[in-house]
Design brief:
The protein is built from ten helices and twelve strands. With 310 residues, it is of the alpha/beta class. The strands form three sheets. The chain has a five-stranded mixed beta sheet, sandwiched between helices. A five-stranded mixed beta sheet has the order 10-9-8-11-12, with helices on both faces.
Amino acid sequence: MFPVVAVDLGGTNIRAALFPSDQPKPAHSQRVLTRAEEGPAAVVRRVIETVEALQLGDTAGLRMGVAAPGPLDPAQGVVFGAPNLPGWDRVPLRDLLARHFGCPVLLGNDCNLATLGEWRHGAGQGVRHLVYLAIGTGIGGGAIIDERLLLGAHGLAAEFGHMLVDPSAPLCGCGQHGHLESLASGPAIGRRMAELLAELTGAETRGEAYSASQVGQAASGGDPIALRVIEDAGTIIGKHLASLVHAFDPERIVLGGGVSRLGEMILEPIRDAFAAALMHPAYRDRVTIAAAALGDDAGLIGAMLLARET
């Protein structure tokens, strides 16, 4: 059994872990701040330093799997760009790491690999068809179709957070209007809270920063505005899930990301809106909605699987 190093490159943190076997528990792991504002060269150097800090020892047969934000081309190993990685434009991440470490490197979209991780070792086990939605700072997703990860013709498939929901919605981080991410991500929930508070008080919004967890705390205390914001976001997500079910007919939907951890206060409106938006009960009766089981490790575990099984 050859060892695998898995890397999860995020806008906030870089995580690396050594997996000596195909079990989803690493022998060693490291986490550092990405400091994305320093640019691609500095971030790649920090990825290398994080992997080297694992003290790999004997690296005979070593392979590496990397989960990175997209859009990216997994076949060419190139990150085209990412809203949370400033300055990244066609960065050949796979080849940069392969040359440094002298081992095969496989690159995949972070949400696609989180989907793979949840399917094999998390809340998606036991099904052949799965839709995964990660609701956090952004909204990403992935799909398993007939036990295969959906990649599309160019490795760009399953950007479920960047599907059009409402053309009049705020500008998305990708530069387009009306996407799900602009309406129901963590920052979108915080922004909507600030807007409604401003309407209530008659004050102007001045860029107040609320996190989804802060809105959740206020909702837990019975704040009616926070409850409305979370219910509205849940309704939007539920309707979107109905569209995904119409498209893919999965057996299970897995919800991950920080916003999903708001629990029943958002899951209940998601389920209600989902059921109401389906075109026929045949869809509702054959799909279950489950919370993700792997937390922040889903992408790492998916990157390990990519390197081990490709």
